[in-house]
Automatic annotation (TrEMBL):
GO MF: galactoside O-acetyltransferase activity
Gene3D superfamilies: Hexapeptide repeat proteins
Originating species: Photobacterium galatheae
Alphabetical list of InterPro entries matching this protein: Hexapep, LacA-like, Mac_dom, Trimer_LpxA-like_sf
Protein name per Swiss-Prot or TrEMBL: Acetyltransferase
Length: 187
């Protein structure tokens, strides 16, 4: 099993592997090009990200955007992210349709061993899944292995350390459900 295959499976892997170093370099080049692209030409800007990021429909992303690899990110239709989105995509990060992402949000599928000697040698991760019609407020952090259900609102500044069920308003550090939503009928 290659280091890339281990990484994508959520197993411990060597991030210094030459192929992974090259993949991260290519992602950094893509992000750099996107972040410096002409803001008046949205189609050209989004085409840069589509070299690696999988879009299942229309999307609008404000610069700046950063990711580790890009090829582990899947974004649903009608995706919007404000400035300074960071997605650490060592494992799959899937975001559903009609997602609104506030400024300065960090979504991380990446983690490290607790043991300091192991941390020097390996990394690992866990997939992140965010459902349809989700709004992540500004400065939200979503940790590895988290599932945020459909129709959720995550309040600004929250740190999501546990799964959030469908139809929830959740806030805080650690993030906790404070209210259940009854979605209205679609128009």
């Amino acid at each position: 099993m290659t280091e890339k295959e281990k990484m994508m499976a959520g197993l411990e892997y060597n991030a210094r592997d030459e192929a992974l170093v090259n993949d991260r370099k290519q992602a950094k080049i893509m992000c750099h090009r996107f972040n410096l692209a002409d803001p008046s030409d949205m189609a050209a800007r989004m085409a840069i990200l589509a070299e690696r990021v999988q879009f299942r429909g229309d999307a609008h992303m404000e610069p700046s955007f950063y990711c580790d690899y890009g090829y582990n990110i899947e974004l649903g239709p009608n995706f919007y992210s404000n400035h300074n989105l960071t997605i650490l995509d060592v494992c799959q990060v899937t975001i559903g349709e009609n997602a609104f992402i506030g400024p300065n949000v960090m979504i991380s599928a990446a983690t490290h061993p607790i043991d300091p000697m192991e941390r020097l040698k390996t990394e690992d991760g866990a997939p992140v899944w965010i459902g349809d019609n989700v709004w992540l407020g500004g400065n939200v952090s979503v940790l590895p292995g988290i599932r945020i259900g459909h129709n959720c609102v995550i309040g600004a500044g929250s740190v999501v350390t546990k799964d959030i069920p469908d139809n929830s308003v959740a806030v805080g550090n650690p993030c906790r459900v404070i209210k259940t939503i009854t979605p209205s009928a679609p128009v």
